[in-house]
Automatic annotation (TrEMBL):
<keyword id="KW-0472">Membrane</keyword>
<feature type="transmembrane region" description="Helical">
    <location>
        <begin position="339"/>
        <end position="367"/>
    </location>
</feature>
<dbReference type="InterPro" id="IPR013783">
    <property type="entry name" value="Ig-like_fold"/>
</dbReference>
<dbReference type="Pfam" id="PF12104">
    <property type="entry name" value="Tcell_CD4_C"/>
</dbReference>
<protein>
    <submittedName>
        <fullName>T-cell surface glycoprotein CD4</fullName>
    </submittedName>
</protein>
<keyword id="KW-0812">Transmembrane</keyword>
<keyword id="KW-1133">Transmembrane helix</keyword>
<dbReference type="InterPro" id="IPR036179">
    <property type="entry name" value="Ig-like_dom_sf"/>
</dbReference>
<dbReference type="InterPro" id="IPR007110">
    <property type="entry name" value="Ig-like_dom"/>
</dbReference>
<dbReference type="InterPro" id="IPR021963">
    <property type="entry name" value="Tcell_CD4_Cterm"/>
</dbReference>
<feature type="domain" description="Ig-like">
    <location>
        <begin position="264"/>
        <end position="328"/>
    </location>
</feature>
């Protein structure tokens, strides 16, 4: 593992080991030069491959011919931020164990371990790689959609970006509150970075868009109100797991009267969202090109808002969060033609007259039945009277 350059008299030692530490002496004629070689060995737990929230552990070993110095160690992230590790060392100063902070996906990159000593003078920077496999959007995301509209749910992985050369698996599932979890698809990524996806659910209609190496993606071409809930993407690497969730919030609008609105009639429009709203959010009904009187706002935490409409026009319902409209749905109230209004009025009047006539006939019929019943009772009493008081008169 060593060679000497005959021109410069330099000694090159390749693939250094701790056992290579010591004093090296160069003799050239009557001249003798000695150099002390101090060797450091830095290793990182899990071979530098981590998931978010893992805590890396560095092991620093040193070897030299003279007494080992007490080292001062500093660690810097790829963004040159200082990390203060928890340091454990043995009494001989030969071995140092450094526990670092919990990792995040953005901690990927080349870190630096700086070693310092005053006697002997040592200022050595040792680079090491930290790779964190995970989602570029790890926090809970919210996605908003209106009923019957398409929506695409996307999870961005970083295994291509960090050149992750080991295989892992994962799955995508969907769950509503207090309901059973439904598996939608499984995926696996090979050591070469090739991704394969397998559909698991036949009852939940979704599409898998064109494959993108770093993304797990599903498309709901026509959202139903029942599609709301939490969609969780989970990946598994060496029996350790990390997941990211997207909450799908769905809005629907409806009316208690379908079709054109007759003149003088009223319809109730209802706007509803699929999940509870945070304190900084509310629902808002407003009429397009309307006045301030045509605006109605929900109370805190209300997930359903109704508005009574007596005039035709286009109405919009908005989900507003911190003055930002997250989603909107509209409902068009059409005015019925005049002849329909007259038909409705005529039908109403005709129906009223018909009901009145039927009521009169019922009353007259009832009175006649009562009179006939009373007449029959009187005749029966008369016959009974004659039978009881019958006499026979004979002429002499």
């Amino acid at each position: 593992r060593s060679e000497i350059d005959p021109h410069s008299r330099h000694l090159t030692v390749s693939d250094l080991k701790l056992s290579d530490a010591g004093i090296y002496t160069c003799e050239y004629g009557s001249r003798t030069v000695s150099i002390s070689l101090h060797v450091f060995k830095l290793t990182i737990s899990l071979d530098g491959h981590f998931l978010p929230n893992d805590v890396p552990e560095l092991t620093l070993m040193q070897s030299a011919s003279h007494p080992l110095p007490d080292l001062s160690i500093a660690v810097f992230t790829s963004n040159s931020n200082t990390v203060i590790p928890e340091v454990l060392q043995d009494k001989t100063h030969q071995k140092y164990i450094l526990k670092l902070k919990k990792l995040k996906v953005m901690d990927n990159g080349r870190w630096m371990c700086h070693v310092h000593s005053d006697s002997p003078l040592i200022n050595q920077s040792i680079p090491f790689d930290v790779k964190v496999l995970g989602f570029q959007n790890p926090d809970l995301q919210k996605k908003y959609a209106a009923v019957d509209s398409p929506v695409v749910l996307t999870w961005h992985l970083n295994f291509q970006k960090i050149r992750w050369k080991e295989g892992f698996t994962g799955q995508l599932s969907w769950k509503q509150e207090n309901a059973t979890t439904h598996e939608l698809l499984d995926f696996n990524v090979t050591a070469q970075g090739n991704k394969h996806e397998t559909r698991k659910s036949r009852h939940f209609w979704f599409e898998i868009p064109e494959k993108r190496p770093d993304n797990i993606e599903v498309k709901l071409p026509k959202v139903h109100f029942s599609h709301s809930g939490r969609y969780q993407c989970q990946l598994v690497y060496k029996r350790r797991r990390v997941q990211s969730e997207i909450e799908l919030v769905v809005m629907k609008v409806s009316a208690n009267h379908v079709g054109p609105l007759p003149r003088g009639a009223q319809v109730t429009l209802t706007c509803q969202v699929s999940s509870p709203l945070p304190p900084n959010a509310h629902l808002l009904w407003e009429r397009v090109n309307g006045t301030q009187m045509d605006i109605k706002k929900s109370k805190q935490h209300e997930v359903k808002l109704e508005v009574n409409v007596s005039a035709a026009g286009l109405w919009n319902c908005h989900l507003v969060e911190d003055n930002d409209r997250k989603i909107s749905s509209d409902y068009l109230v059409e005015e019925a033609p005049v002849w329909i209004s007259y038909v409705v009025i005529g039908a109403s009047i005709g129906g009223s007259v018909l009901m009145f006539g039927l009521a009169c006939l019922c009353i007259i019929s009832g009175v006649n039945r009562q009179r006939r019943r009373q007449r029959a009772k009187r005749m029966a009493r008369a016959r009974q009277y004659l039978l009881e008081n019958k006499t026979c008169q004979c002429q002499q």
